[in-house]
Structures are given as C-alpha cells and as structure tokens.
Design a protein that fits this description.
The protein is α+β, with helices and mostly antiparallel strands. The chain contains 8 helices and 9 strands. Helix 1 crosses helix 7 and helix 2 runs parallel beside helix 4. The C terminus is likely disordered.
Length: 355
C-alpha cells in the first residue's frame, strides 16, 4: 500500500466530513446558524494558522497585500484546492478559486446560501490585515461561485487609511480579475517542500478544519445538538465514502480483519499509533493518542462520539452484519479501544450506554 495514497484517503475523508458537517447545520438548523458556525470556524482557523503559515511559506517580508494573497494561494494549493494568484501591484494582489470549489465539492455547491459562503470571507480574508497589524489592508470580493459566477475571486488592497471593521470586506461584482496564465503562477521551493511534505500538508489541511470545527460546533449548539449534528454527518460520510477510501488504500473484503486493516491504515496515516488483535471471536483495535485533537481539551465525551461516527459509517458500508463498539472513554485512559464483532453478538459488557 502506497503511503501517499493513505494520506490522500485521510484528506478525502476529512474534506468530505467538513462539507457534510456544514450541510448538516444548514439543513437541520438554519441558514443563519450555518452562517455563524462557518464564521466561527474560519476565524478560529485563521487565528491558529495564518501567522505560522506566513512564516512557513517565507512570506513575512512581502508587502501586506502580496503576502496575504500568496498565503491563500500556496496554502490552498497545498490543500488540493484549485487556486490562482496575480500581483497587480505591491498594494493590490488577486486571489482566484476557479470551479470546482474545494469546500463545496460536487453537487454540494447547489445547497450553499450566499451568506454561508460570505461567512468564510468574513471569518478569514477580512481579518488578515488585523492579524498582520496592518489596519489598512482589506479584501474586495468580485465574484462567488455559489451565486453562479465563474469562481470565487477578489483582491487584497492596501488603502491609504485605516479601515473600520465593516470596510475590511466589500463586494464589487462589477470588477473582474485579469486573465491569469497558469504558466506565470508562483511555485513553492522544491527543496523546502519535497513531495512527502506536500502530501502531509494536504492531509493536515483537511484535518485542521475538523479540529477547528468541532469545538465551535459545541460552543455554538451545546453538547446534545452538537453530538447529533457531528455524529450523524460523520456516520453518513463514512458510509458514502467507504468505497472510494477502500479503493485508494487497496483494501477489499468484508471480514472483521479486512476492516481492521482499513482502520489501521487510515489511523496511521492520520499520525496515530494503532494495532489490532483477535479477541473473543472478534477484533480488538487499540489506538494510542489522538492526533486530531492533540493539545486541545476534549470539551465533552460527545466530541469523541462525533469523530467515532466516521468509523461506524465506514464499517456499516464495509459489512452491515458487523458492529464496532468502544470501551468507555475516560480522559485518563492511555488509549482508545474498539471491538469489531458480529452484529448479533452480545456486547453489552463492552459498550457504554449513551442513551
């Protein structure tokens, strides 16, 4: 099994869950709730990632507009996003995301309200100048794909005056980006960014969004609602994407051991230490650590339950006659344990009553 394929599989799974989670909030809560959730998600992601990312990409000494646009160009490109960049001047730099849009993959784009899409820009793009300590930097959005235009595009512009909060993001649909020749796009330094590092960055890109999304989901909706939205969307994504994931990592079959192999490959590609063994007629899986939420407090056991929905969904599509159950989660435990057993097997002594 190619390690790069496993990294791609993890990126695919978490990318799909991000989109599915936002759609779950739109359809099961409201457009307004989804707008607030997406704003919080992208602002949290911005505050955690933007300045460290500028440093990693070597952009700290670029003019503010150029640095902000290049950050989005390089970081999104590393995350597998189709993106373009054009420097019009040191004070004006374009960023363009042609279709298909990464975050609204496939038919999802037809279900995204304008206000939810704009919340991305409010949460991140409009705050770049503030985080950089340059209150003259704003973002001008000229097109959005969710409104039927050929891509999300706009430019960072450094004004002659400091901007009020409501001036940091404006919409100018009468303007358009110049034609951007793909041959002119900047490239990352190959020595600093070898192929394996880029593949890990692609995996991290999708995982970091879920790392940011789950705490905001719980802060906004509370444990019960957040668990429902997070777990259901993860369960559905696991089922819907199992075949694609299994094909990427070349794991077939329907047995408990086949699924344990799939589990271990994905978990190790996430950066976790995992093993499995035969146990009382089934399979016992042991995972040490939890890279996804490392160094973050587990706000509620239901945060784990949301994430666990991915594994439940993958198994449901793998073999509906098997069941994955887990040992009670205790924040003091050194590891997580799951048990894969036939559905009809009595596992009451292994599982937690979560009703």
């Amino acid at each position: 099994m190619n390690h790069s394929c496993a990294l791609e599989a993890v990126a695919t799974l978490y990318h799909a869950w991000l989109t599915g989670l936002i759609l779950a909030v739109i359809t099961r809560k409201s457009n307004d709730a989804a707008e607030e959730f997406v704003f919080r998600l992208f602002r949290r992601q911005h505050l955690a990632m933007f300045l460290p990312g500028l440093k990693k990409l070597g952009l700290e000494r670029e003019p503010a507009a150029v640095a902000a646009a290049k950050y989005h160009y390089f970081s999104n490109q590393l995350g597998g996003v189709k993106v373009e960049y054009y420097e019009e001047s040191p004070r004006k730099a374009w960023i363009r995301y042609p279709p298909p849009r990464w975050i609204w993959k496939g038919t999802a784009i037809c279900a995204i309200p304008s206000k939810v899409n704009r919340a991305i820009l409010r949460g991140w793009h409009a705050h770049n100048g503030v985080t950089m300590g340059n209150l003259r930097l704003g973002f001008v959005c000229t097109k959005t794909t969710v409104d039927g235009q050929p891509g999300l595009e706009g430019y960072y512009y450094e004004y002659d005056h400091e901007l009020a909060e409501e001036e940091r993001l404006v919409f100018m649909p009468g303007e358009a980006a110049p034609f951007i020749d793909p041959k002119t796009l900047p490239k990352l330094d190959a020595d600093s960014w070898p192929e394996e590092r880029k593949q890990k960055a692609n995996r991290n890109y999708a995982m970091e969004y879920i790392r940011s999304a789950l705490p905001e989901l719980f802060a906004l909706f509370g444990p019960a609602e957040a668990r429902y939205l997070g777990h259901l969307s993860a369960l559905q994504i696991g089922m819907q994407f199992k075949d694609e994931i299994a094909q990427l990592i070349n794991v077939g079959g329907y047995s408990p051991i086949d699924f344990a192999n799939l589990f271990v490959i994905l978990a190790e590609a996430q950066g976790d230490e995992v093993s499995f063994e035969e146990y009382q007629g089934g399979i016992r899986i042991i995972q040490k650590g939890w890279r996804l939420m490392r160094d973050l407090p587990v706000l509620h056991e239901s945060v784990f339950e949301c994430w666990n929905g991915l594994w439940e969904g993958l198994l449901a599509a793998h073999n509906p006659h098997l069941k994955i159950v887990r040992k009670r989660l205790d924040q003091g435990d050194p590891c997580f344990e799951w048990f894969i057993t036939p559905l009809e097997r009595n596992t009451s002594n292994l599982i937690t009553d979560n009703t």
